[in-house]
Design goal:
single chain, 386 residues, Spore Coat Polysaccharide Biosynthesis Protein SpsA, Chain A, 8 strands, 52% helix, globular
Amino acid sequence: MIVNNILFFISGFMIFWAMIGYPICIKILGKIYKDREIKKDYNFTPTVTVMIVAHNEEKVIREKLDNVCKLDYPKDKIKILVASDNSTDLTNDIVNKYILEHPEENISLYLAKERKGKTNAQNEAQKTVTTEFLVMTDANAMLEENAVKELMASFFEKDIAYVTGCLKYTNNENSTADKENTYWDSDVKIRDIEGRIQTITAGNGALYACRNSEYYDFRPIDCHDSAMPLYYALKGKRAINNMEAVAYEKAGENDGDEFKRKVRMNRLILDVFKNTWKSMNIFKYKWFSFFYFGHRTCRYLLWLNHLILLVTNVINFKNNNLFLATFFVQLTIYIFLILGILFQLQNKYMKLLNYYFLTVLAQWVGVINILTGKVKPTWEKAESTR
């Protein structure tokens, strides 16, 4: 019974801390550290390669090339590299034609030997890079003209190894996109505070940069968004967020596309156990240990904690008024969730509840895929985001 009670309160605390406690705490820390700013040096213009990873992106690749060719950065210091992850549509032909039509631009195409996913294509293509810095960006993410200049200006301090940009969604009028944008705006603000205090816990695949000399070949199954900031933090380096380096893309326009994206994001969700263990030396990693537990560990374990909370509650609800009350609270939430789905209720609170449990369900699917050996480093893009 004692063990059951302990599990109940731990799981309840971790759910609360992930969704309410940590966001409130980080905002308080932001006010305490309000005078701590990340310096920028706009005179710092090192050589840069903008790498675009593409698999069957014929719908957007020409627009993307037009976009990066208009970047406000010295032309003699910037290169554009398209890393094609074994594209089978017209992507490669479009890029080659673009190169011929624009000889004044320093554009090249790298063809991955076989399709092994985004990270593998980046690993292969990076071997051809000779510039000081790498800027990574997705084919469907359109950058503001000053994006690269902003990223480079953020490498003012020597211990900064990674800088991620700010992603904004362009289709907020869509209900699914609106829910994602609400979550993302809150998350970006948290990252900004983490970076000002020490280092962020995760980045953004639409736009980020690192020193070419410090690039690390992660496993193809890994994702730079989560792997890079953690890797650099454990090396004593910093990863930060630059709110002025902006990328725009469409969010999934239906719950199905958004759900698939979240399942893909959770393909290594069980790694949170070993990553948390690595990062918990607060004497060595300082604030990062606190940030990772609140921003990553508690969120990545929502799937498990909701299960533990419900099971321990069911076991105990007859023996204690507190457990009885929390059992009916959980039961009420699940009933409202089911009714909202069945009757397609679209008020503000139902939207948030549906989005939250869509996230938890995606975590469960990610866990099941791992346990059944269905996880792979490749995926099909959501067409509604193109």
